[in-house]
Amino acid sequence: MEVRSQIAMTFHLDKCIGCHTCSIACKNIWTDRKGTEYMWWNNVETKPGTGYPTRWEDQTNYNGGWELQNGKLQLKSTSRSKIIPNIFHNPSMPTMDDYYEPWTYKYQELFDAPEGDDQPTARPISMVTGEYIDIEAGPNWDDDLSGSPVYAENDPNLDALSADVRKQMFEIQRLSFFYLPRMCNHCLNPACVASCPSGALYKRGEDGIVLVNQQRCRAWRSCIAACPYKKVYFNWSTGKSEKCILCYPRLETKQPPACHHSCVGRIRYLGNVLYDASRIEEVASVPKDQLIEAQRSLILDPNDPEVIKAAKENGIPDGVITSAQESPVYEFVKSWKLAVPLHAEFRTLPMLFYVPPLSPVMSGSDGEITSNETEDLFHDIKESRVPIQYMAEILGTGATAPVEYALRKQFAVRMYRRQLTVGDVDEATADRALFEADCSREEAEAIYRLTSLAKYEDRFVIPPAQREQAIEMIKDPLEHKQSVGFGFSSPPMRV
Amino acid sequence: MLDTLLFVVLPYVALVLFFLVGIARYRNRPFSVSSLSSQFLENKKHFWSTVPFHYGILGVLAIHLAGLLIPDVILTWNAAPARLLFLEITGLALGIITLIGLFNSIMRRIRLPRMAVVTNKSDWVLLTLLMVQIILGILVSIYNGWGSSWFASSASPWLWSLFTLSPDISYVAAMPILVKLHIINAWLILGYFPFTRLIHVLVIPNPYLWRKTQVVMWHRDRKSVRLKD
Predict the structure, then answer these.
(1) How far apart are alpha carbons B108 and B115 in whole angstroms?
(2) Which of B203, B200, B57 is nearest to B130 (CA)?
(3) Which listed residue, of A11, A154, A345, B10, carries a Cα 20 to 30 Å from B56's Cα?
(4) Residue B28 lies in domain
């Protein structure tokens, strides 16, 4: 057992209101530089929808992530045997047009326009070439456009649904959607790191954050094709890859990442988990339908004396172990099994988990009558307006069981709380719901608290970075003072 | 005098620049050691520029390098006319492939507005030097044929005389003007090399082929903090 600590995240999709505040917070801090205008390290997608870059989930086109070849784990398009023959031109490389061409407006025209009969307008200009452009795409171009035959119907996850279910989904009365905020998953088995010919990408041992060393990046761009989530980006101005750094300068000073901190719906939870690093390859190679459970088994119980002992032997500080014991992510993912990874079938073992959304309100309309009366307590979940099979394609590797389990439990917690606060559900019904959802009253209470009442300290349990210890090995701590951060030691100029 | 300047001084200046500036750049500004890929901005024309250019020039350079390093082998190989002809045609074909690639590359950079943003003056100087060099090389192989043989028997000894610090220009002084121009331009490119994006040629994915799949870096020495009990 090789115990390591990893900073992991949980996004509660039921609470996401799709306001994009996370994206803006991130952009203002990290990607407002030349060459990064098109990058959204954090973005929010409407599902069903095509996402950013367009149809990123379709790996028959983007060829990202891992696949099993004769039982052996292989990078789909960026293994050594495929990168070297394609060294001068990688056919799986996305281009700017797969994302969008960033633009601004020529505001000066509002002032400089000659006097005339019409109001002057600020025309859009490309932030790459500076020329006038017709805007054809943006990072959230299909925002709230569920049901649109132009956008939502091209969602790759719909391919697995039967024609009937697809048709149902796009009926105007049943139309619904949910938001999917996305960022780097800081995977345990990152395809980007594995693919880098320069070894410029690496995972930090202490907290598992995946970073690109800008000084070592030699612009091979394998990582961009390798990441199945398309969360490594190419800076066309510097020629280097860039990606989410999980705001590590903030984390090291015990602040949550900006996207987490700014979240209006308070959907984001962050904490570290302990995991067994010696089993990574084994877990990433299990059959598709076992991936979610196998990934859960990789995460260790931080209260188990054996685990604590092994963690200490591996040099994990006490503070990091304590923080793992209080981690909200551990509760969501492991204790309650409410949160599941996004597209676990890409086999990167992502460390960002999603609580599947229960909404919209589960009532079906039958003519003029709206009702949800049935003997089966969880009838509505199966008849959900977002078909459970669709959700399973995104969050369950195609299997409905993990998603259904999470939805039943959430529904049971709602019944339990309704019985307590409103009283129109009787105790027996609530108890039966809890029982059928594999949930005790204590657990329901805890889920309710962490979901609805959680304070800042409950949502973000950040392990001590102990950079002071780390830096003492390399240089005088006083010399290190004021030098933490993304900054370069010399201007990042080319040639 | 002019010959000494062009075939002794110029090569040494170029070599010194190549090594000193190259090493200094690698050590002091590793961030700049790569080419600026433009595939992200345009994908289709990129294929028809970069692929023929790179494979062509690698082949051409390999033949030049063979003439320099193993001249005897080349001369023995060329003893049979059929084999000499084979090498001659291969070289010319590779040169033309390189030319096509470079031509496409230049046209792509002229025509596409997005390319103008990522092309600087140094790139244009370099593209011009390379274009001149490739055209000269093709002309040499057309008008001053059997280059693989005479390169091995006269250019190679001259280069070795330079490397062994006993320059002897008698080998090159009598060469035709096209060959001389090709040689002079080659040294210009070599001297200019470390100041340009050509620096990417020196990038070797060293541990890539045998390293572990994942790269994990530790800030603290875990052994030193391990419990002793």
Answers:
(1) 7
(2) B57
(3) B10
(4) 2-225
